[in-house]
Amino acid sequence: MEASGHEGGRGLRRNAVGLPGLIAQSLGVTAPEISAVVIAAVVASRVGGWTPSAFLVAGIGAIGLALIYGRMARYVPSAGGTYAIVRAGLGRDVGFFAGWVLLAVGIIFVPGLLIAGAFLLQNFFGLVAPGTAFLSHAWWGWALILAAAVFVISWVGIQISARILLALTAIGVTMLLILDVIILAKGGANGWAWSSLAPWNNHGTFGFGFFALGVGIAMTGFSGFETAVFLAEEAHTPRKEVPKAVFGAIALAVIFYVVTTFSVVTGYGLEDAGKHWPSDSGGAVVGLAAQYASLWFGKVLLLLLAISSFASALGTANFTTRTAFAWGHDGYLPAAFARTHRRFKSPSVAIIALMAITVLVFLVGLIWQGRTIDDAVTYFSWLLQVGATGILPVYGLVGIAGFVHARKHGGTVVDWLIAPILAVVVVGVAEITEFYGQTGIYKWAPYIMLGWMVAGILVRAATRTRVESAERQAEELQPELA
Fold first, then answer.
1. Fewer CB atoms inside 10 Å of the end CB: C or N, the chain?
2. Which distant-in-sequence residues (6+ apart) come within 8 Å of 426 by Cβ?
């Protein structure tokens, strides 16, 4: 049933994914529809109608990261992705830390995104079939169904996964862009909200602190744009196509986020966006569609938000299982994680382990928070905050690794100065927001991830000598890691 990962290019299916599939992987994980509506609603709670500006500034930081990822992908085409890039730039110890955190982020984000898809489906069926209790009242049932779908698609290989991600992302983005065009064509509530792109020109009400907080939250909406790098060992000509995919994904994401948030602010009106968008959250698409197009179109968009969350979970499962696969090779996890399915060439042991943990996370949420829609929203938000607290410092390490690697290997001033500064500054601001103004269970959520980081440092110190020979063997197979 299984094949050793050391056979045939470490066991993953070679030349399985082209440029469209790689872009779909990156865009699918960012969940552009969710980010441009749901995460943007949280940004609006901080900066109101200037949400498009917050996404524009965050996008500049994301572009800095994309420049680093694109350059590093040409040197380190590994299934380890971000972990391998940090290791190549900053050494084994910091690389281990990055991989340790990335595994936790994936383990948290996959069930979290499936829970988000579940409660959005509850909302959808609450509108179209309110009399059916299971469809509209049981988040755990939908979560299990979606998890089973992720398991099957991941199991049968990256080609199927990439095609599904491409189709789902294209449909969702296109439909939301149609709503954008309709709102803008009708002039919105009070004409196009051009002032939303110039927050400094608002008669003295602009506050840098709150705007920085909004930028930090917006930065989490770009999380995942880099995940094409995790498919490097399964891509066509990875040193050429992976950088294109990363640049393409971030360019499309920045344009889409700014256009969509601008359209939503235009639809509400500059002043009312900050009042209503945060409480409407994902329901904003229903209300705006009903106002400017039709209610049925809004219901379809709500369904597409749920599908977007599912697609993001699928893409996140792809990068999480590839990180575990690479760690199985590099000696940090049991060698079984380096095995692939004999027929489908998927990292089957890693997929089974991830799905088992996902079901466990569902169970914890059901016992701890409950089974209602509100319970699911609370649990998802808590998981999202824990995971974001982990991924942002890893992005910071990528920025530093890019600086070090570019200085060693003759990079341009953009490679070793401009891109790292943009990346580190913006993700640093974003990380601070995870600790700022939190209440209730969210107040201690970031410290869960900090505890995991400390545990990783202790594990590395305790096992450093034992895994040294395995690390050397990994570097013999992939000299770029050294």
1. N
2. 57, 58, 60, 61, 62, 64, 215, 219
pLDDT digits (tens, 9 = 90+) for 77-127: 776 788 889 999 999 999 999 999 999 999 999 999 999 999 899 888 888
The one-letter code for the residue type at 162 is: A
Query: What pLDDT sits at residue 220?
Result: 87
Question: What is the pLDDT at residue 127?
Answer: 86
Give the separation between CA 154 and CA 158, rounded to whole angstroms: 7
Q: How far apart are the first and last CA of the chain?
A: 33
Position 465, amino acid: T
Cα separation, 107 vs 361, in Å, equals 9
Query: Bridge partners of 341?
Result: 2
What is the reported pTM? 0.89
Half-sphere exposure of 267 (CA within 13 A, CB side): 24
CA dihedral 137, 141, 142, 144 (to 10 degrees): 160
Q: Is the Cβ–Cβ distance between 214 and 54 less than 8 Å?
A: yes
Residue 341's φ and ψ, nearest 5 degrees, are: -65, 135
* Owner of token pair 């489908």: 344
Q: What percent of the chain has pLDDT over 90?
A: 61
